[in-house]
Amino acid sequence: MRVLVSGGGGFIGSHLVDRLLLRDDCTELLVVDNFWTGRRSNLSHITDKRVRILETDVERLADVGLFDEIYHLASPASPPWYMEEPLRTVRANVIGVLRLLEALRPNGLIGFTSTSEVYGDPLVSPQPESYRGSVDCTGPRSSYDESKRCSEAILFESRRVSGTQIKVVRLFNVFGPRTRPDDGRAVSNFISQALRGKPITVYGNGLQTRSWGYVDDIIDGLARFFWLQPTDYPGPLNVGNDREISVIDVARYVQSRFPKTPIVHLPPAPQDPTNRRPDLTIANRELPGWACQVPYEEGIDRAIAWFSKNEELRSASHDDVAAEFRKSALHM
């Protein structure tokens, strides 16, 4: 079984690589990553000879043969990153999925990690997969949101026209070890800021809500859907935690672990969704026995412990990207 993971050096991708290596039928695993937002250190623990790492843009992937399974995760997922290079983001998703379809063996499977961002700033809660979203296809988040939506469309059309085996998941907010300290999203931002003795910065009033899924739980859901459980359902499938918590409550929880750290409020991020919560009806049907088990409080404590042990991350900063993000917010 030849398997390819694009974006395998990233936060979620590297955890998926670890889970794939538990499979006896995986004889070769090609990790494709340009290390734009991924980190080589996320893969440094791997000594398995089945793994080969190819440093390249997925959309420029040369002929590497055909694969039985392909999992496409190559894309930035944080607004400061994809807003900084929107065209590169579109290429990674859309051209990437087209290139990967060419590398798929007949009767092979391609899995795609889409996003809850396809729902935009939702007018219904929780969000079922049937909800078409309240989206702005020309707004500052469109490079990410719309390229994910387009990639979904390409895969479902390939299934309809050519019978391609696909599995599409829509991930909600994921956090945990191996996140970049300069990622720009809430949990990693709060922890890295607190560890550096800087104020915890909350965009807007912090009342916007998210559903925080610890990475171990999310990877378990992906593994069950992609290969462990016998389901022919192609997706889209919501995968996330259906416990909805405000950003300010998460900031306060991190602050409780660093009592001397103040919370400061910055202008709202551009078109930041007011709420996010998955309807897990289909997930409960297709993945019996799966659910997010790790409470966000415990997950944050684990993430704090991981960041604290990685000295090179404690002093790392993405202040330039964060500054650009604040600048874009101020000009909205």
What do these coordinates show?
- This protein is an alpha/beta fold.
- It has 2 domains: 200 residues, 3-Layer(aba) Sandwich (Rossmann fold); 105 residues, UDP-galactose 4-epimerase, domain 1.
- Strands 3-2-1-4-5-6-11 form a 7-stranded parallel β-sheet, sandwiched between helices. It has a two-stranded parallel sheet with strand order 7-10. A two-stranded parallel ribbon has the order 8-13.
- Helix 1 packs across helix 6, helix 3 packs parallel to helix 4 and helix 5 crosses helix 9.
- The longest helix is centred in the middle third of the chain and has 21 residues.
- It is globular, with a radius of gyration of 19 Å.
Give the number of domains.
2
Largest sheet: 7 strands, parallel
Oligomer: single chain
- Unreliable stretches covering 5 or more consecutive residues: 326-332
For CATH, the homologous superfamily of the largest domain is named as NAD(P)-binding Rossmann-like Domain
GO molecular function, one term: UDP-glucuronate decarboxylase activity
Membrane topology: Single-pass type II membrane protein
Subcellular location: Golgi apparatus membrane; Golgi apparatus, Golgi stack membrane
InterPro entries: Epimerase_deHydtase, NAD(P)-bd_dom_sf, UXS-like
Please render the helix and strand layout as text.
Elements: E1 2-6, H1 11-20, E2 28-33, E3 51-55, E4 67-72, H2 79-84, H3 86-102, E5 104-115, H4 142-162, E6 165-171, E7 174-175, H5 186-195, E8 200-203, E9 209-211, E10 213-214, H6 215-228, E11 237-239, E12 244-246, H7 247-257, E13 263-266, H8 281-286, H9 296-309, H10 311-314, H11 319-330
Parallel strand pairs: 1-2, 1-4, 2-3, 4-5, 5-6, 6-11, 7-10, 8-13
Antiparallel strand pairs: 9-12
Helix pairs in contact: 1-6, 3-4, 5-7, 5-9
